[in-house]
Every structure is written in structure tokens, then in C-alpha cells.
Amino acid sequence: MPLNAKQQAAVEYLEGPLLVLAGPGTGKTQLLSKKVEYILKNTDTDPSMILCITFTDAGAKNMKDRLRSMIGQTADQIDIMTFHSFGQKILSLYSHYSDKPQRVFSNPIEEVVQTKIISELQSNLPTSYIIKNVRDPKELLKAISKFKVTKLSPEEMKQIAAKNESEIKTLELVLSPILQNLPARAAGKDIFNILTETVYIPLLQRLGELKSDSPIVQNVYSITTILYEKIYALLEAEQNSEKPSVSPLNTFIKKYFSKDQAGNYKFSDTASNKRLSEIAELYESYQKYLTEHDLYDFNDMIEASINFLEQDVDFRRKIAQNYLYIMVDEYQDTNPSQTRLLELIADEQESPAVMAVGDDDQSIYEFQGARASSLIHFKNHFDAKVIVLTDNYRSTTEILQFSRKIADQLEESFIKNETMQRSLNVENTITTELKKELIAIRNNEILKASPEDSTFEQNIYSAEDATDSKSLSNNFTQKSFIERHQFINQDAEYYWVAKRVHQLIQAGAKPSDIGILFPKHALATPLIPYLRKYPEINISYERTENILENQQIYELTTLCRFIAMLADGENPAFMLPEILSFNFWDISSDDMIMSIQSIERNKRTALEILQSYHDNPLYANLAAFFSELAKKSFSLPLEFFLDILTGVTPIELKINNQNISFTSPFLSFYTKDLYSKATFDLYNRLNLLRNAILSRTEKSKLRLHDLIQLLNDFTETNTPITEQTFYKDSDDSVSLMTAHKSKGLEFKHVFLISANQSGWDSANRPPSIPLPLNLDFIGESRNTPDGKKRLLFVAITRAAKTLTITSSKYADEASKESKPLSFLDEKVIQNEAGDYLSSPFIPNGRVSEHNDQLTDAEKASAVRRTWLIKLLNPSEKLKPILLEKVRDFRLSASHISSFIRLTYSGPLAFYQQSILHAPQDTSDSISLVYGNLIHHVFEEITNNNITKEEAIDFYLNETKDQDLLEEDIETLIERGKDELPLAIDAFEHILRAPGAKAEVDFSKEKLNFEGIPVTGKIDHINIDEEHKIIDLYDFKTSTISDKDTWQNKESLFIYQFQLLFYRMLLKLSKTYHDYTVRSMNLLFTAPNRRETIDSETGKIHSIELTEDIVANMPVTFEELIHAVYYQITSLDFLDSDSPTNAINLEEPKLSDIKEFCKTLVDRYQNK
């Protein structure tokens, strides 16, 4: 296709810096390649003196391939690379250029190594440090990485923190008297005018006097300046509003300020500056560690190249002389480090021939450190000529007009920037060159009738004929291909989407012309089963997965851990139930469960259990197999070990004095079809695992325990071994992808699913490591309103002809009603004929609402993979044995908690632990030991009135007597020294109260509640004998926050049933049945150090369960206890068709647990 006038102008412009704003579908890729071709044909430039920088390796490859098709092998002489590969090239050149020894920058350390380093450094921080309590070291690593890419040094970070702290003290004194005038709520012009005079103007005056136009460092301005700008913007917005209100200012003040006991306004987050200083210190230690060990991370590659270029002028000039022409693609995705690298090279020329191509409306990688403002920075830094490409070759007019309505909502954009407006201003009027409205060049061609058009509704709308570049005012009418549908719930939405896709294909649409887009992968998983219901729908779906979570690799690594424990002389009997459930052994559920029973009865080792179970001859083979591999694991090379374990190589075993050859069935089971994709994927994952081992160790002779250490490293640092999982049924498949992944692609038919607030505009999660107000820009900008709008804009502009937007009113039966997507300006319109949802951006302005529920037959779901599923549907032979085991079951509070705690597999985990009594993993025994120790100490304080000092000594002596590893004992000692004194101070008045009793045991009373045998032990009660009153206390060795409630935190929701159970025990007890339980309380012994600047002490929490809370529970305690007992004694939950097995919940949430409780009660009442 020939270039248009603006493309041609950009190609031929070689006189200096050039910025090309290239919106979606405007031929950006063609432009870059044509420019290279033009330079080579019209100048005598050597190809090696052209530098093209792309954002991804795939982008570099695509450009190279395109250029090869245009200029042949000459393309191989051109430097086409990413910023990181360019940085690596500079480092390599400098190592040969400099006569001083340089650090070797060959391969950056991987995330698992980085996280281990950070974890080690974090553990050495003083206890008083706030960041000492950050649970995931990876969050600290992310924070340091963000500071690296934004080029803020540790010293600058400390400077910002110090300035902020001193400034906050001044601001609190100055602003508090003004904020006292802020009314709680008010509306109307008169009241707003009073507010302006008494609050807004005084605030702005005082802030204006204190603010500075100069940054503290680089582009970081003072908190005063930020507050001034934000409050000024609030005032301006309200003054322009038809109904000005106090609410926006109230909300703003509540976000950043809180009142102390004296009623003075104080900054809410004073800890963030201390946190910033601590991160700066950790950052310094991290960099020092890397330097001392001759290591570097991914970000260091560019930083080091920048440092060399800045410090060595001659070297910088030498590099700059190598490149006469520089072109950078996707410039909106660059971060400050990358832009600095480019500037160092380009600035050596007086008027560098550097061209940046990008579109700030499509800046969707800000969470990686990129900035949409980088285009503005490029224009200002280089004083670049600007060309705006507006001819769109992809979409219809109505698609482009719809997308423009989203882009126009962006608060920050190139065309709205005041500096840009002034620099491109002609006689105080913005030049049309700066307008970004796209023109649908192929509108009529795209709209030509096709068979699948009949699938869409016959909506007629009036549009502007934008195919005429000279005029945008020629109105005409046409059929609309933008549809908006809302459904009663997600199941109904996904059912309809799959049906519509099927209809399109049946009508003649090519599957590869259809794209289904979503903002996050979690929204796609439930859709796939609905698409799979139609054999004609082939799908293509790519996502990054952790191979360690893949079922086959998980089974393999579990076997490795099992054998390693055997080799170390440990007893991994607790792992046998899961290992025996692996499908490739072909062991029946009856055999598996009966062997588990023997485990509980005999308390023998894993190998003894396998050897003693005679009903299945495979067990003896497995015992010999595991035993032999355990012996060989110390000497057998890891490659050979894995070959035997997977069945590549057989192994000779001796069983009952007979030699047999045994081959693991692992590979033969999973690779029955040698040519299937499943077989290919398995071998690929095995290779990835092997490569991960080899690339992360310097050892030449690897053994099983090296693999176990590697697996532990990945697990402890929560680091994945990733693979790009690509499911593609055929070349002609419907594409499912995130909006991020879709960038640069196009589809004739696009579906945007889950188009409500929770899908595309979900509430921002609080930052894991909050930073000060003036460093907000370092956070994950993908979560800003502009970032979300840009992502939606990108998704919409993938569509060529049709755009179908769907959403659901409720995610499921238990969910709250979803809010409409504000970016679409949708509102519920009240009408005498019935309320309806208005969507003014779509042509007919009204959403098609579908309120019908799906039938059970229409629903589709993906069953969760868990080995516990094999416990379902016990055979007729086994079920009587199990019913006998639960016939005299005595219910406790922990049984109820275990049964409804779906995040730990709920009913099936309860079955394994409390009915089958299978051995449990003791790897986390240190937490159980700590809990027991704390309870024991509190019991001593109550029963023997020991002092605080004696209590701590008692704890330390008891800890030293535990049968644990020395390192675990040290951990317990340190934790006890840290937490126990604080807990005693907080709860001493309870422990030493008159009438206090500890560890009140009801096991001997044989209590019964309405026919249900019950038992249990209460941690602590305080008795008022005179008034026959009891206060009930339960200790938890964890913590909560001020924001946690009985209804919003999973653990608290479950704990309330425990407290009610304990109250019931007291009422049933012969000793206490005449007493009234006045209060039920949880006491948390661990301090929360995130909520206070005094991180040395932290905050000890307690919480009372009141009758108001109990009255608002989704089910009553009495209903739940009957329902759970019924499930246990009937084994109803072992029926795969029963809704009470909870196997279909992939990642259960609190709402799922609440709904599950209702299901249990309904099941009992309708039995």
C-alpha cells in the first residue's frame, strides 16, 4: 500500500528530531520500515549506522523480517534491538574500550536469586524497621526496581523522606485550623460559596505561600506543591459543576488526614517516609551485595551503560558517531532510564536525526515503569517536529468515533498538555496538526455486506462520513455493528457469548477473524467451557503459567521430595495418600483409602505401609522402587535419576529375593499419543525444569538434593518457572487474549467481556508498600483511571467492523450487583415502562438487557484439579466402613472451622484429616509449637500468677526443650522475645483477673447439643461468681488490622462460629450452665506493625463478637452446627453430585464461604 501524505512526510524528514504520533491502525510498522529503506536509497549512509529500537524482542524480529523483504540481506547489517540488548551492547563495547577492569555483565541474575538476596538482607534489619515485617520479599524487590527505572538513587530517596518529614510538621500546624471549618456534608451553591471562602481559598493561600516551584530532586516535588495542585483541581472541578458539593474535598481530606484525640488534623500516613528511608537503606545494601559478588540484575544493565556513557565523554562520543539515524518504536512505553540512554547518544549531535513513534493513548505498560508523558518529554527535550498520523486503515467510522469518546476522557494526554499547546500554537489557536481524531479510510470497504452480518441486530444510526478527509460533516445513516448487552450473571453472559460466536461461524465468519478480549486472565477461564460446548469453535489462548503448578510436573516434584525425605531418614508417610492418588499408578480409590486407614492404625513408616498392604501387588513394587531410588539419590546423576523416575529407563529391583525390572508408568501414561500437543507440552515442561536446574547452579555434578534445594528456593521466594502456554486448536481459531496482549493486532469481530466496573475499572488494591504522596507516580499506574481508560481504548480499536460489549449484573448468586462501567457513561434510567440501562456512547443508546437465568443443563464449569477428588464416591464396599467411623463422631469447634474453610479444601480436607486420620505434614509444626507455647505461658500466668519476667523465662526454657531443629528453636526464641512481652502487657489484666480460669476442658462431660455429641476446650474464661457472669476469651497467635471485621475477613468470619461453639459448651456444662456469657473475645498475640509509626512495639489487637454481629450472620450458629453434623454423619459431601463437596471453586473467597454455609443449611433442611 502506498504511503499517505503524512506518512511520506515522516519518511522523508531527515533534518532533525521527529515525533510521530501514530494512533491505532495508522500504519506505524510500515512507516518505520519505509524510513529505513528511504535513508538507504537516498543517502550514502552505511546500514550499520542506523539504529532501530523496539519495545520487545518480537517487535525487533518482525521489523527485521519486514526489512529483509524490502532490502534483502542488507537488513542484517542494521542494528535492530530492544533497549536492554542495546544496553548490553554498550557494556560489551566498553569492556573492550576501557583500560580499567570492568564488572562482567554477561547474564543478569534471575528473580529467584534476587529475592533470596533481599530476603537475607531483610532478615538482618533491626526489629524496629517497618519493612522488616513485609511478608513477601518480592514486594521489596519490586519497590527497588521501580526506583531504579525511575532513576532515583538511595541518597535521593533519603533526601525526599527527610524533606517530607520536616514539611509535614509545618503543614499540620498551618492547615489544621483551616480544616476545622470543613462541614461534614453540604450541597448547593450558597453553601459551596461559604466553603470556598472559609476552606478552599485559605488552604490554597497558605499552601501557595509554602510551596516551591523547584523539585526536591529530579521531578519529585514537595508534598505542599502536590497538595496545592490537587486542591486547586478539586476547586476548579466543583466550580464548573452544576451541583457543587463538599463531598470531593471531604473525601480528599479523609484520604490524607485524620483527627487526633484533641481534634487536630494530622497526616494519616506518617509511616511512609520512614518506610522510604528504610527501603533506601535496603537498596544500598542490595547494590553493595551485588557489586561485592560481581552480580547484577536486569535493570542494572541499562543503569551501568548509562553510568559509563555519563562518566566517559570520549566513549560516549565514539558510540554516538556509530549512529547517524536513530528510530524508536512504541516510545510511549519507555521508562526514564531508557529515555536517558537514548538522550546520551542522540545529544552528541547538534540536531540529531532521531525519530520516536508512539501514541500516548495506547500507553498501557506504565506498571513496568513506562510513562505516557515520555512523548511530551521527547518533544521538549529535542524540540522535535511533530507529525500526527490520522488515516486509519483498520476500522469503521463508528468504531473510531466510539473509541475517541474513551480517549477524550483522559486527563493527561499529549494534546491536552499546556506546554504542547503553547509550542504548537498559531495565533492563540491550536493547530489542526495536533488533532488526533482518526479517519476511517477503508470505511465503505469494511462495511461491504458479508453473510455473518445477519447475526447482528438491525440498529440504524446517523454517522459522520469520516472517509472524506476534507469534511467531517457529511451525515448518513447505516446499520450499526456496535452492540451492548447485559446479563443477569456471568454464566448467562458467557453462555450467550459462546452462542453468538457459534452463530457467527455458522453464518460464514472465519474463526480467526474473531477476538474475545478481557482485562485479566481470571475472566477468561470460566468462558472456555462454554466455548468448548460447540465442536465447531476452535480456540487460541495464550497465557504465562508456572510449570511448578502444572499437574504433571507437580506430581513429579512431589515424588522427588518424597524420595529425598526417605533418603534423609525421615518418614514422609503423610505424603502417601496424595502420591497413591496419582492417576499413572492406576490405583483404585478403595485401595488408596484402605491403605490410608492402615497408616492411622499402625503408625508405621511409609515403606512399611507399602510393604504391608497385600491387596494390591503394586504396593510392594513401589516400596522397592522408592527405597532403591532413595539409596541411589546420593550417587546417581540427576539426569539419570529423573530418567528412572519418569520411566525413560527401567530399574532393577529385588523383591522377595527375586530380581525384577520395573519401569515407572509416568511417561507411558501421559504420552500415549506421541503426536498430541499434550505430549509435546509435557516434554517441553520437563526440558524447562531441567534447564531451570542447570541455569541456576554452578555445580557440574547435580544430584536429587540439588533439585530439592532449587524447588525450595522457588517455593520460598514465590518465584515461578514460567512457560508461555499456547492452546491453539488450529490456524483458524477464535482468539482469547488480554487487552494488553491484543495490542498491535486486529479482528473483524471483537467481543469485550465483563464490561462493568469490577472487570475494567476494579477498585485499586492498597499498595503493598505505601509510598509518600509525592511519589505516587512510582506506583502501578495501570490502576489509575487514565491507565484503565487507555487499556479499554486499545481493546476497542482492535475491532475492524463489529464490536460487541457484554457484562453481567451479578458475578454469581452470592455477589453484590456490579456497577456500570463509568468510562461508558452508562446510567440506569427510570421509566414508567420499566427502568433500563442507558449507554449513550453506543449508536442506539440503550443496553440490551437479558434477565433470564441459565438452566443447570446450560451451565458449564471447569472442575478444580485436586487429588482429594479421588476421595469422592466411595464404593459400596468402602462406604459402610466410613459410616461406622463417623457413627459416634463428637463435634468440636475446630471441626466446624475445618469443614467450612474452603481455602484449605474444606470438606475434603476435613475428611482426610478428621475421618481418615491420614498423617499430616509436619513441616509447619513450628507454628503449632509456638501456639502451644503461648497457651502454656498464659496458663502459667493465670494458674500460678508468675511475673512477666518469669513468664518470659518459662517460655524460653520450654522452647529449648522442644524436639526441633536448632534453627527452628532460635526462630521461636526470637519470636517469643519480640511478641510475648507485648502480648502480656496487653492482656495481663485478663490473665490475672479474679475468677480467671485457663484451658477449660469439657472432654470428660460428654456434652450433647440437640442430639449432637460435642466437645472442646476453651482457652480462657473470667468468672464473676457474684453475678454469675462469664467473659470468654480465645487466643490467636496472629494479628489483624483496624480495618478487619467479622464480615470482611475470612478468618474472623470462621472464628465467630468457634466463639459461639464455646459459648454453647458453657451453656451445656453442668458447671457453668447457670452463668451468663457476657462477652466473647478474640485476643491476638502478634503485634501489627503496619498500622503505626512505632514499629518497635506495633499494635496488639483484640475484637469482641457482639450480639449485633451474631444477628447479621448469613446463617445461624444452630443451623450450621446441625448442617455440618449431618454432612459428617451422612457422608453426603462425598457424593460428586452434592453441592457440599465444593470441588468447583478454583480460588474460594469469603463470599464463597458465606454462600457455602447457606448451601449446607439448605441441604440439611431439605434432606
Describe what you observe in this structure:
By secondary structure, the chain is an alpha/beta fold. The chain folds into five domains: 5-107 and 297-389, 3-Layer(aba) Sandwich (Rossmann fold), CATH 3.40.50; 112-279, no CATH class; 396-410 and 427-538 and 729-759 and 784-862, P-loop containing nucleotide triphosphate hydrolases (Rossmann fold); 547-725, PCRA, domain 4 (Orthogonal Bundle); 875-918 and 1128-1165, no CATH class. Helices cover 45% and strands 14% of the residues. The chain contains 42 helices and 33 strands. The strands form ten sheets. An eight-stranded mixed beta sheet has the order 20-17-21-16-22-23-15-26. Strands 3-2-6-7-1-8 form a six-stranded parallel beta sheet, with helices on both faces. Strand 18 (651-655) and strand 19 (658-662) form a beta hairpin. The radius of gyration is 34 Å and the shape is globular. 37% of the residues are buried.
Helix-strand blueprint:
Layout: H1 5-12, E1 18-22, H2 28-42, E2 50-54, H3 57-71, E3 79-82, H4 83-97, H5 111-123, H6 137-149, H7 154-179, H8 189-210, H9 223-239, H10 247-256, E4 257-259, E5 265-267, H11 271-292, H12 298-311, H13 313-321, E6 325-328, H14 336-346, E7 353-358, H15 374-382, E8 385-389, E9 391-392, H16 397-407, H17 418-423, E10 425-426, E11 429-430, E12 439-440, H18 443-446, E13 460-464, E14 475-479, E15 482-489, H19 490-507, E16 514-518, H20 528-532, E17 539-546, H21 551-567, H22 576-580, H23 589-602, H24 606-612, H25 618-632, H26 638-646, E18 651-655, E19 658-662, H27 666-670, H28 677-695, H29 704-716, E20 722-728, E21 734-738, H30 739-742, E22 747-752, H31 757-760, H32 785-796, E23 799-810, E24 827-829, E25 836-838, E26 848-850, H33 879-886, H34 893-900, H35 906-915, H36 925-944, H37 948-960, H38 966-991, E27 996-1001, E28 1007-1009, E29 1012-1014, E30 1017-1024, E31 1029-1036, H39 1050-1068, E32 1076-1084, E33 1102-1105, H40 1107-1111, H41 1117-1130, H42 1150-1165
Parallel strand pairs: 1-7, 1-8, 2-3, 2-6, 6-7, 9-12, 15-23, 15-26, 16-21, 16-22, 17-21, 22-23, 31-32
Antiparallel strand pairs: 4-5, 10-11, 13-14, 17-20, 18-19, 24-25, 27-30, 28-29, 30-31, 32-33
Helix pairs in contact: 1-2, 2-3, 4-12, 5-6, 5-11, 7-8, 7-11, 8-9, 12-14, 16-32, 21-25, 21-29, 24-25, 34-35, 34-39, 36-37, 36-38, 37-38, 41-42
